[in-house]
Amino acid sequence: MGQKSITILSSVGMLITTAIWGFAFVVVKDTVDSVPPVYMMAFRFTIAAGGLALLIPKKFRKLNGSILVHGIIIGICLFLAYLLQTIGIQYTTAGKNAFLTAVYVILVPLILWIFTRRFPGFHIIVAALMAMVGIALLTLQENLIMNKGDVLTLFCGIFFALQIIFIARYNATEDAILLTVLQLAVAAILSWICAPFFDGPVPLGELARTKTLLSILYLGLFSTLLAFLLQNVCQKYTPTSVAAIFLSLEAFFGMLFSWLVLEEQMTPPMIGGCILLFAAIVLAETGFSFLLAPFRRSRQQPS
């Protein structure tokens, strides 16, 4: 298979990943009414970690103290991100939850700037300002106050950004798939520990409902296990800037499925906020090159 075919298949894989994640916002929103949020996390991460561990038993031969510590660090960030996101969706719409989560794409270079003191570029500053305006249009109500679901989702974006930064750092020396299993397992363990304090007894009665069980299986097998595997494999063959743009489409699919399935209403300011956020994400990952490309091509053409 040629390099071009591999690149195309990887792009399709990334697109499928974001569509799976986008639909997960609808599933979570539709399920938190019957299954408490932290227990939902416990179920999905347990299914994903257990399923992935069964697929790669030989990988555990590489397990050592270094990768265990790194997996715990990433797993804690993953747990906190999903905890804030899953609780936040109870107080806001699935579409807004999806778009606000995608702000992590812009937060990554800004956080790196703080720790490395390397200026990320003028386009990142412009993108951050665009994102702030987009968030305001998307979340602020007539009284100019964000609800607590929006605030929790914004904080979840910070931990998703930290997770991405740590993955990029540790993947250079560790086995990526084993690191994925470990972070999922850590997130599952923390969810089971915290669930009784947040949600009370295990909702065993709800698991008998077919709709609830199918939702949890979707979140565990597709949105967590399959999506994480697709992301890890496809990013190896997809340029970083292109991969980031594909991942940002998670927000688009989240909003699209929320409108199609949940029939959530979108006001003109909210649509404007979505467009600004998406434009900010593209600008943050590609710079101004996508705007200057037509002018560069015209200069190269013979007169």
Structural description of this entry:
There is one protein chain. By secondary structure, this protein is mostly helical. It has 12 helices and no strands. The chain has helices at 3-31, 37-55, 65-88, 94-101, 104-116, 122-139, 148-170, 176-199, 210-234, 240-261, 268-286, 289-300. Helix 3 runs antiparallel to helix 7, helix 3 crosses helix 8 (176-199) and helix 10 (240-261) runs antiparallel to helix 11 (268-286).
Give a short synopsis of this structure.
With 303 residues, the chain is an all-alpha fold. It is built from 12 helices and no strands.
Number of helices: 12
Radius of gyration: 20 Å
Low confidence ranges: none
Mean pLDDT level? 80
Order of helices and strands: HHHHHHHHHHHH
The percentage of residues in β strands lies in under 5%
Layout of strands and helices, then pairs:
Elements lengths: L2 H29 L5 H19 L9 H24 L5 H8 L2 H13 L5 H18 L8 H23 L5 H24 L10 H25 L5 H22 L6 H19 L2 H12 L3
Helix pairs in contact: 1-4, 1-9, 1-10, 2-8, 2-9, 3-7, 3-8, 4-7, 4-10, 5-6, 5-7, 6-11, 10-11
Q: Can you tag this structure with a few keywords?
A:
0% strand; 303 residues; single chain
